[in-house]
Amino acid sequence: MVAGAAISTDLSDSEWLHALREIGEREGYYTSLGDDHAAVFIEQSHDVLFVSFETLFTIRSVSDTGMPLAFDMAARKGWSHLTLIATRQDWFRDRRLFSYFDGLVDHGFFENFDRVIFYGAGMCGYAAAAFSVAAPGSTALLVSPQATLDRRLTGWDDRFPSTRRLEFRSRYGYAPDMIEAAEAAYVLFDPEETEDAMHASLFRGPNVHHFRYRRGRAGAIESDLRTLSLISKLSDHASRGTLDFATLAHEMRKRRRHVPYLRALLSRVLAEDRPRLTARLCRAVLAEQPIPRFKHHLEAAERRIAAGNGHSQDPVDDEDETADSPQVS
């Protein structure tokens, strides 16, 4: 079995892909989909299929084992897993990918599994949403996904100039429409990242649940999720049919002890010059763990409040980050 598999970080990208091909062909299958994409499938059971979208760069820079997320996570659970890999930033907009998923649908591939979970972040979150239409009734876990980069609809997002030549008007194009058949889609995003928040707002419907995660763009949020094993935990709930918004919010409370997240939150309230909120945050953090930086800023905030510079009209946030009570939108 592939649980515990690893690929050396010393390999070139082409050597890495060759090594992954050997593992895939030995344990399942590996398919090249043109020069820029590949699919690797490992069959372990018919209970759960975990479908993830990743870039070659992210896999090689983030994974301790040099393996795709599913190999590090789903394999240990005994789940089958399908990983779609992109070697460049093209939002998986390739007709060979469309044909590949068409073939999976035609052969009833997804119908072989009791539960199907799609996962992706950023560009890969877009793809996870877009291709989830191939498996009605699935669950989609999406981190800061783009809805589309069609200039007619999202001309306000100029972060990705290289996508101007990509088309998002054909099949599997508009991700919010593609998740309509999903049992549930969870969209995690940072409301302070304007473009990400605007994309998130385009995902609508009774099966869509938004979770505000003030941490930065997709990479930072996904880094937290990986470090805190939250992708694994949320997928566990999805596999049992117990994932709902309340469960998601409960699991996210693990952030309260995650220092990178807490530091990002502190930086935000400091930038907003809100001493009373700063003091509340620092007290909440220090009640859990003694972090010198928070002690320093608590003392500074308390001095300002005592001196009458505490902004008595300092508004309370509509989403109390210190209590981890994000809103559903």
Number of strands: 8
User: How many domain modules?
Assistant: 2
Main structural class: alpha/beta
Number of helical elements: 15
- CATH class descriptor name of the largest domain: Alpha Beta
Q: What spatial order of strands do you see in the largest sheet?
A: 1-2-4-3-5-6-7-8
Through-space gap between termini: 42 Å
Biggest β-sheet, characterized? 8 strands, mixed
**How do the helices and strands follow one another from N- to C-terminus?**
HEEEHHHEHEHEHHEHEHHHHHH
Shape: globular
Topology-level CATH name of the largest domain: Rossmann fold
Poorly predicted spans: 315-329
Which band does the percent of strand residues land in? 5-15%
CATH architectural label of the largest domain = 3-Layer(aba) Sandwich
> What is the average of the pLDDT values?
89
Region (Disordered): 304-329
Protein name: Phosphoadenosine phosphosulfate reductase
What does this structure look like?
- With 329 residues, the protein is an alpha/beta fold.
- The protein folds into two domains: 13-255, Rossmann fold; 259-317, no CATH class.
- Helix content is 41%, strand content 15%.
- The chain has helices at residues 13-27, 56-62, 69-72, 74-77, 95-106, 123-131, 151-154, 175-178, 194-202, 218-227, 230-240, 245-251, 259-271, 275-286, 292-306, and strands spanning 28-32, 37-42, 48-55, 80-86, 115-121, 139-143, 184-189, 208-212.
- Strands 1-2-4-3-5-6-7-8 form an eight-stranded mixed sheet, sandwiched between helices.
- β5, α6 and β6 form a beta-alpha-beta unit.
- The two termini are 42 Å apart.
- The model is unreliable at 315-329 (pLDDT under 50).
